[in-house]
Amino acid sequence: MNDFFLVACLDDFIENARLFIFETFIRIHQCIGIDMLAEKLNMTGDEAERWIVNLIRGARLDAKIDSKARTIVMGTQAVSPYQQVIEKTKGLAFRAQLMGSNIKKMEKKQLEGPVWGTGEL
Question: Is the pLDDT of residue 31 over 60?
Fold first, then answer.
């Protein structure tokens, strides 16, 4: 690879790209073919199977590998109501602060009145 910026961290880049692709697939599908996933990850079927086994062990995912059918079966991951509330309100404080600062800017502009010679009225 001749990319100046990626040459130093090529292995990390490839590993993180594979992880991103895998995470995307497990969010969408409950049953994934190892050979199809290996093709997407640019690996052989056996390499992909070993990589996925290590990933399942390390990340403690609720998944099973069916070696005969060459598939990965994901378990159901129920989201708790507490987690749902956290996800829904994650950016609420930031949005409220941003809205407050925008209102203050508008009030300040109204109190100052038009600025002559700038084209702002």
Answer: yes
